[in-house]
């Protein structure tokens, strides 16, 4: 077969306005570097907010030009040709910058001081305390979800499902993962994220966190502990039974929120091979088992007043936090967006995803239906799947898609040029049955 | 010593050939199956060539099966051209000098572009669009040009227009009839496609055919002249005026009876013993009522491949296409059709047409004019219909009023999409007040 470059000619040059928007984004990034380099507090402030302004204007302008100025519909021209979305040089640079940012954030936060100080004012008004590296991270994260969320709203404006879902992740990130935890701190309450639950936010059910919340939060702290446990063990199975995993992964979760907005340009990079699927199963379920084990051991140890295990369970929790909580979910999960796609963490690492996935596969009314025999095997659905599911394998057989990893983002259905796929909640009977309109031996031959 | 296993040789790795191979593998696990193709080593989805050009997908993404699939299922792939058929010795000669003996031979050689002997059609920069080498030629020849003329108001014509448009090249569309795709779309539906063409600023000449293609001194196309006498400067011409069966190999066996295509009976047997034909290249001697002798569709190729495999496996099965269905996408407008949906007024058949006053959404339901008012077919634009439900209604001759009252059951649009059943029924009740119907409760969204 000929190589791809022979089959798709080079992309045309960008229009002047598009170049201007991209230049603004680049200037914004440069502004952040200047902030880092400048020791003068006054100028830091100027550089920093000018940079954020340029990043915002550039991103919104680019999205408006690229999507808003065209008729509403599926827009993926040049996706596999543009260097930034096809693992070209620009993608590697982006990946290195993101990875580097996470490494500095986790282990060398002092280097970020010049970026943190300009946020002191904002942090004081929201949380009543000076900014730290986590406030900087939260601000960047929320800004990314908001700006790239606006991009997703323009891009997917022909699909009401995508529009509402995008607004949902923007709302939960801004309200539940940024403003509310800040306000709790302002009122001298424990910082708490109501949209993250064990086992993703693993320490919320650790004895130490439970003790801290109850001691420091009084009635509210007790409610927080109750909320966390109830969401993990009662609400999660019930909601997943009715709606599938998507109620969380692509509607509420902050990791999912970033993937669906900032990660949207990279969704097609998820590996669709069978080999990747095997790795997924090999990695994600052991991590889920590990966090269950660590949590159980911590409680056992607490119950026996540290007699049974000494410091072993605490050490295990620390190591888990280092390798899974920091390296996997942050450095690899987001840093590698431009290379491996936006859901590396969700697909290979997240224990919450594993838990939700088991429920979705075995105890849920959710499935993606295939519309009879209408599939033409074009491959757009598989390409768009951020979780690396080879959707087409199911669609071309007329089979419904019931996979533990499906986060229900619905983009396969959105991009299908033949209206073949639909996310549906329905009776569990017959949920796995394939269409009879596709196999010769089931319909046309026997009838 | 055991006898050599049954050997099926398939010429052509398109959807018909591959469907036959997969079905026979299921029915006869021990059979030896060899698939010969000069076009590509691996099966790919012809329907998706346009997405490779536009950069939505890579060539590897339009292979419906990963490369390991063939070896694991013991399907031998031979990437070479079959050059001659020797029915007496049950052998096929290949261009690599080898010959293959067969116990059964399936000819699934597909189509080739059909040109009409226009003056200048041999010029450089003039081509059809059917296979990989067409895509390569297209990629090479339209890079950097300003305008390409697309001849043909059908599915491939509008695909080519969309491809050129995606690269900022002006496609000019020549359509023979008064409106787009007049062989399949009634005027109202065609008007919606025309709106898409206009919205994307594609110049189009209706009632206009190609008279000749004009070349420059280097033998490259420089312009076309239309039947209206207009000379249109262009640097490339796409001839999308249909395809015809590829009979190159079939003609090497004089005893193999052909007409437009390879003549087959209802079991897809040719006039030669042990030789079958399926897909685009087959011509049915006695097509069923309302069906055409040569079907050049992805779906029918798949069905014919599946059916012929049963006959080859010793479980003779006549080809029964079943109730017609098809789909397409015109720029951003999706189209689905089910059952009998003729373009022109037909004796004994009426239709009810509804179109959204603002949006690009329309539905036409065909029904028998007799007292039964049995529904016979659907055209849907900008609206997804459920294949299984439409098929069942048509098969069971469900009356029009019942179908309208239960229309929500056929809806396949994603969640949160605007629903049109109420408006459709209101329009019907206005048009046919003597048969006014009450709408059944809406399909429930969540449970």
Task: Describe what is shown at a glance.
Chain A: InterPro entries: 4Fe4S_Fe-S-bd (IPR017896), 4Fe4S_Fe_S_CS (IPR017900), Electron_Trans/Redox (IPR051684). The complex is a heterodimer of chains A (447) and B (447). With 447 residues, chain A is mostly helical.
Please provide a written account of the structure.
The complex is a heterodimer of chains A (447) and B (447). Chain A has a domain of 83 residues: Alpha-Beta Plaits, CATH 3.30.70.20. Chain A is built from 19 helices and 2 strands. Chain A has a two-stranded antiparallel ribbon. In chain A, helix 3 runs parallel beside helix 7, helix 7 packs antiparallel against helix 8 and helix 12 packs antiparallel against helix 13. The longest helix of chain A has 37 residues. Chain B has 3 domains: 175 residues, FAD/NAD(P)-binding domain, CATH 3.50.50; 116 residues, FAD/NAD(P)-binding domain; 111 residues, FAD/NAD-linked reductase, C-terminal dimerisation domain (Enolase-like, domain 1, 2-Layer Sandwich). Chain B has a 5-stranded parallel sheet with strand order 3-2-1-7-19. A 5-stranded parallel sheet of chain B has the order 9-16-10-11-12, with helices on one face. In chain B, strands 21-22-25-24-23 form a 5-stranded antiparallel sheet. At the A-B interface, helix 1, helix 8, helix 17 and strand 2 of A face helix 2, helix 4, helix 7, strand 21 and helix 8 of B.
């Amino acid at each position: 077969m000929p190589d791809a470059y022979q089959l798709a000619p080079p992309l045309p040059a960008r229009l002047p306005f598009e170049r201007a928007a991209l230049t603004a984004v680049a200037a914004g990034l440069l502004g952040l570097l200047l902030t880092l380099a400048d020791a003068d507090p006054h100028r830091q402030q100027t550089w920093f907010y000018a940079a954020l302004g340029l990043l915002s204007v550039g991103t919104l302008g680019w999205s408006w030009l690229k999507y808003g100025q065209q008729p509403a519909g599926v827009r993926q021209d040049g996706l596999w040709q543009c260097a930034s979305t096809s693992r070209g040089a620009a993608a590697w640079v982006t990946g290195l910058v993101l990875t580097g940012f996470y490494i500095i954030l986790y282990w060398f936060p002092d280097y970020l001081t010049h970026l943190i100080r300009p946020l002191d004012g904002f942090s004081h008004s929201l949380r009543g305390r000076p900014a730290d590296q986590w406030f900087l991270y939260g601000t960047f994260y929320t800004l990314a979800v908001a700006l790239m969320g606006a991009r997703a709203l323009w891009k997917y404006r022909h699909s009401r499902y995508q529009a509402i879902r995008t607004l949902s992740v923007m709302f939960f990130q801004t309200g539940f993962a940024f403003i509310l935890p800040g306000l709790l701190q302002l009122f001298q309450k424990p910082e708490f994220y109501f949209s993250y639950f064990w086992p993703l936010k693993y320490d919320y059910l650790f004895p130490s966190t439970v003790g801290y919340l109850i001691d420091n939060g009084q009635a509210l702290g007790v409610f927080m502990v109750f909320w966390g446990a109830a969401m993990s063990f009662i609400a999660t199975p019930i909601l997943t039974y009715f709606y599938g995993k998507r109620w969380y992964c692509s509607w509420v979760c902050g990791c999912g929120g970033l993937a669906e907005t900032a990660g949207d340009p990279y969704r097609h990079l998820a590996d669709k091979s069978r080999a990747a699927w095997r790795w997924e199963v090999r990695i994600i379920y052991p991590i889920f088992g590990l966090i269950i084990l660590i949590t159980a051991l911590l409680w056992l140890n607490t119950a026996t007043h540290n007699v049974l295990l000494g410091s072993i369970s605490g050490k295990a929790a620390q190591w888990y936090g280092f390798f899974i909580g920091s390296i996997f979910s942050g450095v690899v999960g987001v840093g590698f967006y431009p290379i491996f796609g936006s859901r590396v963490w969700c697909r290979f690492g997240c224990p919450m995803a594993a838990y939700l996935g088991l429920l979705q596969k075995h105890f849920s009314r959710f499935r993606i239906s295939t519309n009879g025999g209408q599939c033409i095997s074009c491959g757009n659905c598989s390409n768009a799947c951020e979780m690396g599911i080879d959707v087409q394998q199911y669609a071309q057989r007329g089979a419904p898609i019931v996979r533990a990893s499906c986060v229900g983002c619905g983009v396969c259905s959105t991009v299908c040029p033949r209206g073949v796929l639909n996310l549906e909640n329905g009776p569990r009977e017959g949920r796995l049955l394939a269409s009879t309109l596709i196999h010769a031996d089931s319909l046309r031959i026997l009838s | 010593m055991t006898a050599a296993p049954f050997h099926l040789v398939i010429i052509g790795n398109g959807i018909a050939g591959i469907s036959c191979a997969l079905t026979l593998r299921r029915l006869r696990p021990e059979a030896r199956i060899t698939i010969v193709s000069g076009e590509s080593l691996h099966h790919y989805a012809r329907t998706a060539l346009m997405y490779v050009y536009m950069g939505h997908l890579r060539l590897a993404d339009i292979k419906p099966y990963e490369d390991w699939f063939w070896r694991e299922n013991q399907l031998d792939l031979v990437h070479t051209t079959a050059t001659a058929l020797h029915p007496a010795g049950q052998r096929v000669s290949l261009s690599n000098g080898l010959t293959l003996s067969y116990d059964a031979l399936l000819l699934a050689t597909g189509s080739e572009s059909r040109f009409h002997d226009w003056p200048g059609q041999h010029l450089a920069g003039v081509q059809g669009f059917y296979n990989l080498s067409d895509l390569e030629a297209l990629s090479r020849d339209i890079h950097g040009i300003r305008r390409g003329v697309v001849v043909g108001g059908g599915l491939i014509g509008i695909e080519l227009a969309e491809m050129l448009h995606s690269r900022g090249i002006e496609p000019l569309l020549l359509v023979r009839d008064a409106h787009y795709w007049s062989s399949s779309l009634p005027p109202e539906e065609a008007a919606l496609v025309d709106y898409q063409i206009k919205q994307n600023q594609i110049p189009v000449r209706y009632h206009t055919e190609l008279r000749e293609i004009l070349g420059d001194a280097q033998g490259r196309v420089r312009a076309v002249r239309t039947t209206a006498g207009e000379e249109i400067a262009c640097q490339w011409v796409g001839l999308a005026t249909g395809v015809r069966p590829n009979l190159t190999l079939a003609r090497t066996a004089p005893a193999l009876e052909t007409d437009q295509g390879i003549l087959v009976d209802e079991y897809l047997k040719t006039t030669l013993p042990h030789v079958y034909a399926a897909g685009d290249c087959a011509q049915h001697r006695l097509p069923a009522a309302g069906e055409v002798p040569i079907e050049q569709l992805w779906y029918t190729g798949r069905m014919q491949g599946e059916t012929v495999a049963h006959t080859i496996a010793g479980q003779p099965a006549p080809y029964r296409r079943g109730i017609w269905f098809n789909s397409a996408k015109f720029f951003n407008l999706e189209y689905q059709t089910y059952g009998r949906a003729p373009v022109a007024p037909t004796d004994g058949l009426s239709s009810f047409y509804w179109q959204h006053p603002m949006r690009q959404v329309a539905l036409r339901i065909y029904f028998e004019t007799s007292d039964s008012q049995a529904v016979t077919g659907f055209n849907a634009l900008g609206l997804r219909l459920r294949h299984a439900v439409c098929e069942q209604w048509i098969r069971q001759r469900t009356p029009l009023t019942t179908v309208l009252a239960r229309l929500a059951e056929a809806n396949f649009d994603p969640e949160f999409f605007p629903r049109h059943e109420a408006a459709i029924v209101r329009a019907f009740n206005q048009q046919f007040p003597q048969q006014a119907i009450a709408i059944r409760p809406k399909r429930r969204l969540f449970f």
